[in-house]
Write a structure and sequence with these properties.
globular
Length: 362
């Protein structure tokens, strides 16, 4: 098993290194301290993606049919947990995907496939939505739903309405967003950042939707209402934003005076095909094993990678909220996109093999 994991990791590293090399051709100066989401170049190359693949398989007994929530009761004292379920998550809610939530994409238009990139570079198939910082709250609508103030401080991007009471439906109805890609009313959030004891607000997040190492022709859009939490230390890297590709590290590093701090977080890219959310908000997703999704999570979805830009942070004595017990890097995502537009962009950029950058296809 370890041999297969090693081979899978080598495959991902080789693929992503090649992708970064291709993307970096023709790239000009990176955004500086005064940049905003609207000023980011459509050809900006995302940093490399490194993942250590997981192989645990999770079997979940379906709840009730339809797009509903089913409560998993606390076990009676002394009773053993059932063999089928989520290890370590004896209570919580499962949200079963309904027939209309999953949108397998049709084959891409042949002429659009031939059109190539929509910006000035040739690169891997992707589209990138840049979302300015929206607001901060001690809320987490996934982990602490309907419990305002019970979480540590988070920084939110994209949907302006995100709070403790948010659901994918309420976010979609609100529709207001800081993202530049049409239809991206998704909610993205990360823990608040502190440097030298001072609160540092982020500038923007770049949300890159890529195929990863998987066959780009097989990628499906995220199902409507999917909720994701990534809390794996292997999925996050810190780097310095400047005029050249910087080095990556597991801990924040001191950046040169003409550069500032950035954080990369990589979400899992394989879905179990059953659940939009589960009690720990993670076990319904898995990372691809090399170029394939594991049998337990057979549906290939975009490799969503966030690049959080902290233009006023230098990486000196930097911690993530809460201050009294700093957390490791993590991020949340709720798919409250306009689903028709998300499906279109997956089809016309990723499936078509087109590097759209931050330029929406017509």
């Amino acid at each position: 098993m370890n041999h297969h994991r090693t081979l899978a990791l080598v495959g991902v590293v080789v693929f992503t290194a090649a992708a970064v090399l291709v993307l970096s051709r023709g790239i000009g100066e990176k955004p500086g301290r005064g940049s905003s989401a609207s000023e980011i170049s459509a050809t900006a190359a995302p940093p490399r993606v490194e993942l250590v693949q997981g192989t645990s398989e999770v079997h979940i007994t379906p709840a009730t049919p339809g797009r509903t929530e089913a409560t998993v009761r606390e076990p009676v004292s002394g009773a053993r947990l059932p063999a089928v379920g989520l290890p370590g998550a004896p209570s919580g809610k499962y949200e079963l995907a309904g027939p209309g939530d999953r949108n397998p994409v049709p084959p891409p238009d042949f002429l659009r496939t031939l059109s190539g990139s929509f910006d000035d570079s040739k690169g891997m198939p992707l589209f990138a939505s840049f979302c300015s910082y929206s607001h901060s709250r001690s809320d987490d609508p996934m982990v602490f739903p309907r419990r305002p103030g019970d979480s540590h401080l988070h920084d939110f991007f994209g949907n302006l309405a995100t709070d403790a009471y948010s659901t994918d439906d309420s976010l979609r109805r609100a529709g207001r967003t800081t993202c530049n890609f049409p239809g991206d009313s998704a909610a993205y959030w990360v823990p608040a950042l502190y440097e030298n004891g001072q609160r540092i607000k982020p500038d923007f997040v770049g949300a890159y939707y890529m195929p990863g190492a998987k066959d780009h022709r097989t990628i499906e859009p995220f199902p409507r209402g999917l909720k994701l939490l990534v809390k794996d230390a292997k999925a996050a890297m810190w780097y310095c934003v400047g005029n050249a590709m910087g080095e990556f590290s597991k801990e924040p590093r001191r950046c040169p005076m003409d550069q500032h701090l950035g954080l990369q977080i990589v979400f899992p890219d394989c879905w179990d095909g059953k659940y939009l959310d589960v009690p720990d908000h993670r076990k319904h997703m898995a990372y691809a094993e090399g170029t394939k999704c594991p049998a337990s999570h057979p549906v290939p979805v975009p490799l969503l990678t966030l690049f959080v830009d902290y233009k006023w942070a230098q990486g000196v004595d930097t911690i993530l909220a809460p201050v009294d017990a700093p957390s490791s890097p993590h991020a949340d995502f709720v798919n409250s996109w306009d689903q028709a537009k998300l499906t279109k962009f997956v089809r016309d950029c990723i499936n078509a093999g087109v590097h759209c950058g931050s330029t929406p296809p017509p």
